[in-house]
Amino acid sequence: MVKGLSPQEARARLNLIGRFLYDARAIDLWERDTKTLPWIFRRLRRKYRKFAQETIAPLALKSDSDPHQIDVKEIFLKAAREGLETELMPYPIGTGNPIALAKSFLLGPILKAEEFCAACAGIGLALLAHDLGIAPLFISGDPKATFKWMRRIYGEILNGEPAIAAFAITEPEAGSDAEETLGASRARVGCKAQRVKGGWVLNGRKVFISNGRVAKWITLFAALEGEGMESWTCFLLDKSMKGLSVGRSERKMGQRAADATELVLEDVFVPEDRVIGPVRGGWAINRNVLNYSRPVVGAIALGIARGAFERCLEFCHKHRLNDRPLVSYRYVQLELADMLIKIQAMRAMVWQAARYKIPFQTAGSAAKVFCSDMAWEVCNQAMKLMEENGFLHCHGIEKAARDARLTQIYEGTNQINRLAVVEGQLNAEFNIPDFYED
Ligand SMILES: Cc1cc2nc3c(=O)[nH]c(=O)nc-3n(C[C@H](O)[C@H](O)[C@H](O)COP(=O)(O)OP(=O)(O)OC[C@H]3O[C@@H](n4cnc5c(N)ncnc54)[C@H](O)[C@@H]3O)c2cc1C
Q1: Cβ atoms 122, 257 nearer than 8 A
Q2: How far is residue 434's CA from residue 28's CA, in Å, rounded to a whole number?
Q3: Cβ of residue 129 lying under 6 Å from some atom of ligand 1
Q4: What is the mean pLDDT of residues 289-293?
């Protein structure tokens, strides 16, 4: 190469001001992006990465090949000791940083999801689904939910108990229907609540509940007897309740460390003070929880893609083809560049979603759809570069692909989230008068 043409050499010819304005430093993108964050989030991002690398990464492959070999509760307690499972509220209720929470409610969970899931999306999901289970307690705006129940659950965790939470909306007859307006209006609701003296009696089944097996606490949505999803009410259940039992845990394709479990309710008595938010307020709480949680799913996908990229890049340096490292081939460089571009776009998308003071439907769904589709593409690009090695479990690439596929399904399939984008902007942009008619 002609000397003086690389960005670093060319920059050296400029005067001080020119050099100051021309950033050609060799700094990796993780560091560069971290430096754009307010200091409190910089610290958080480094803390999450340290925990992910030290505690989650070493268990990743084992947790995938044999999920029963790892103890999710033990990992949860390790995270809890670092203050990572009580972050949705500041002191004295939890361990969330008040300045960070005031600046952005979403950015912390987004940074956490990327780091945890770059190490292992299965363990990541188990740790993050707890925040999802807690979310209705503060999103409801119900002071009792925050000051009585969050205080109690976070208190247990801070005292060293694995008081894991889960979020239960999905039913055997209602998956997408539990997540979008039109489906909900004709859903056959199976989980019912009947008013009795002093509270409610719940019957029915929930399925595919992340952490359903290990959770102590469950925020669960049920319709009032004789009514549909418009009557959905949020209840806080705990496993000690008579009539609440754990059914089948699914054998899953990806994110295998987190259980997806059926919950069976047979005449479960739920006292009145376990109603979260208003009676019939559950549909609104559920939709808003999804607004908060879908960008986090985008960040889960981002983490999976970044993990796959990093492992693939390392492989391309180590692996030799015709006595040259794979990374020295132009075709390989172009593919790696394309993966990195996608990852940068994903990060931009989820960080943008976190910039809105209050999360909203369009931003959350858009981030979820874009990132989960991109993660699937990036993992497949990594598989393509590594070919037979990508197919081997030991490199973690086929695991990443399987993990990524799930992000296109949960928290509403990507079709449902595309509908949510239209609905979110219905009156502002799309103006489709018969959107709700079939
Ligand atoms: C591993 C895992 C973990 C999960 N964790 C949880 C959890 O913690 N809590 C919880 O409550 N749920 C959880 N879920 C449930 C998850 O959110 C649902 O699986 C998801 O919403 C899809 O529902 P479904 O599988 O019933 O698909 P269905 O609703 O049966 O959809 C089938 C197909 O039809 C499409 N479709 C449906 N309606 C429309 C429409 N109106 N327009 C266009 N296309 C449509 C869908 O996109 C999909 O392709 C989990 C699921 C999995 C797999």
Answers
A1: yes
A2: 49
A3: yes
A4: 98
Which numbered atom of ligand 1 lies nearest the CA of 411?
A: 17
Which class does domain 284-430 fall in? mainly alpha
Q: What is the pLDDT of residues 345-391, one digit of tens each?
A: 999 999 999 999 899 999 999 999 999 999 999 999 999 999 889 99
The domain locations on the chain are 1-26, 29-136+151-158, 165-282, 284-430
pTM tops 0.90, yes or no = yes
- Name the strand (E) or helix (H) holding 227: none
Summarize pLDDT for 157-196 with one digit per residue, the tens.
999 999 999 999 999 999 999 999 999 999 989 999 999 9
Q: No. of H helices and E strands in the chain?
A: 17, 10
Strand partners, 293: none
Q: Encoding tokens for residue 367?
A: 């981030």
Kindly report the protein residue whose alpha carbon is nearest to atom 25 of ligand 1.
175
Rg (CA), the chain: 23
Tokens 């559920």 found at: 286
pLDDT attached to residue 1: 79
Helix (H) or strand (E) holding 236: strand 233-238
Decide the pairing of beta strands 233-238 and 165-168: unpaired
Q: Which residue is listed with tokens 């990036």? A: 378
Residue closest to 205 by CA, chosen among 220, 195, 217, 219: 220
CATH classification of 29-136+151-158 is 1.25.40.10, yes or no?
no
Question: What is the rounded CA–CA span in Å between residue 100 and residue 129?
Answer: 21
The answer for residues whose C-beta is within 8 angstroms of residue 254's C-beta and 6 or more apart is 121, 122, 399, 401, 402, 403, 404, 405, 406
Which residue bears the tokens 């949705």? 88
Q: What's the token pair of residue 406? A: 């799930």
Three-state SS at 142 = coil
Residues in the chain: 438
Q: What does the DSSP 8-state code read for residue 171?
A: B
- Which structure tokens are listed for 33? 């992006």
Ligand 1 pocket residue status of 308, Cβ below 6 Å: no
Quote the Cα angle for 380-305-34, to 5°.
Answer: 155
Of 64, 176, 251, 297, the one to substitute when testing ligand 1's pocket (max ligand atoms within 8 A of C-beta) is 176
What pLDDT shows up at residue 366?
98
Peptide bond into 92 cis (omega under 30): yes
DSSP label of 90: B
Q: Tell which CATH architecture fits domain 165-282.
A: Beta Barrel (2.40)
Farthest-apart Cα atoms in the chain, separation: 86
